[in-house]
């Protein structure tokens, strides 16, 4: 008979261990569920971000296509104007002579400038430049 109380005590101890283990497993299961929910939310956010980025990419591609078309039409307009200019120079001797005339030296120097690597270089070049002659003076061609 002594065996029965020891057996019952062992069973109670085993049940207590199983209950504690069950509680620990339930806690782990709850943590895993929370992690799964957090990962699902992150995945949804990433999918939304990918969808937004894809939309932006399509919009940029469309804008690029529109810009290319605008550039192409501007190029065609420029070519048409250049052809018209060439025709007018070819047809009009006075216009051809005017176009072939060189600019005065002072005006030509306005078109000359070094390559700049920054805005401060440009400002330095502007401040160190030569002064324009007084309007009462005639330009000196060199």
TrEMBL record:
Keywords: Coiled coil. This is Transcriptional regulator. InterPro entries: Phage_P2_LysB. Residues 80-90 have a biased composition (Basic and acidic residues). It comes from Rahnella woolbedingensis. Residues 22-56 form a coiled coil. Residues 75-96 are annotated as: Disordered.
């Amino acid at each position: 008979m002594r065996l029965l109380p020891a057996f019952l005590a062992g069973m109670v101890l085993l049940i207590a261990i199983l209950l504690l283990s069950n509680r620990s497993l339930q806690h782990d299961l709850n943590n895993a569920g929370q992690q799964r929910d957090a990962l699902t939310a992150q995945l949804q956010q990433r999918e939304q971000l990918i969808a937004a980025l894809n939309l932006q990419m399509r919009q940029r591609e469309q804008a690029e296509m529109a810009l290319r078309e605008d550039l192409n039409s501007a190029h065609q307009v420029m070519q048409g104007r250049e052809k018209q200019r060439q025709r007018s120079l070819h047809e009009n001797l006075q216009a051809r002579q005017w176009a072939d005339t060189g600019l005065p030296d002072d005006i030509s120097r306005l078109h000359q400038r070094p390559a700049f690597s920054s805005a401060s270089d440009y400002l330095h070049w502007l401040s160190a430049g030569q002064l324009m002659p007084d309007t009462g003076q005639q330009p000196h061609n060199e």
